[in-house]
Amino acid sequence: MTEQGQRVAAVWRDPAFASAWSDGDTMGDLLTFPRRLAAALVAYDRPGTNLVVDVGSGPGAFLACFLEEFPAARGVWSDASEAMLARARDALAAHRDRVEFRLADMTDLAGGGIPAGADVIITSRAAHHLDRAGLAAFYRAAAGLLAPGGWLINLDHTGPEDVWDKRFRAVRPRFATPRRDEPKHHHNYPLTSIQDHLDAYARAGVTDVEIAWKAFFTCLFAGRKAGA
Predict the structure, then answer these.
(1) DSSP state string for 143-169
(2) Using the 8-state DSSP alphabet, how is residue 73 labeled?
(3) Is the pLDDT of residue 24 over 80?
(4) Which residues contact 126 (CB under 8 A, 6 or more apart)?
(5) How many CB atoms lie within 10 A of CB 187?
(6) How far is residue 12's CA from residue 31's CA, in Å, rounded to a whole number?
(7) 118-124/146-157 β-pairing
(8) How many angstroms separate the CA atoms of 153 and 120, rounded?
(9) Integer Cα distance of 131 and 135 in angstroms
(10) What is the pTM of this model?
């Protein structure tokens, strides 16, 4: 595990924090649509998808959505948190015969044994814990594991300019009211911007990219690797 990976994973390895965060997550309903949209986009372009890799999968909701969309596909769940692994096994029980579970650091995909030739690599609310260099390195490593024509999809938080940050924070409680007991976790680095993500995709050689959905601070980045 890299030094950055250790910093990112530290809090999520605490079983009490992982449970409290999962139980108190207020974004579940809001993210149902972009998860389904991501799966639908891949299904339209790559209906024969056989391998879905979810990096920083946490409880496994994003992976579950793809496994439902592609009933013949196999999935790889990966995360650095053993606490999340226990939750994911329960959440993905309906697909247990098609899922491989790997404890892996998202900053060292090769070291985590993430297989190459994936039809789609997805990640959700994990890469925003990386700095710009770490984000670029992650996209580059993930793109290298994709099959030609494969998809790299990230549903993640971004850091807007101060004025938009203030506006979003002012109106967000009208749509997703945080629970008072919702656990807080710090970020080791300033949140990367939308442009940082687009630049990182480009440096990874993935230039067919779109922001397929956006709400407040959260964006669905969908990029298709060149090839078949």
Answers:
(1) HHHEEEEEEEEEEEE----HHHHHHHH
(2) -
(3) no
(4) 8, 55, 56, 58, 106, 156
(5) 13
(6) 20
(7) parallel
(8) 7
(9) 6
(10) 0.90
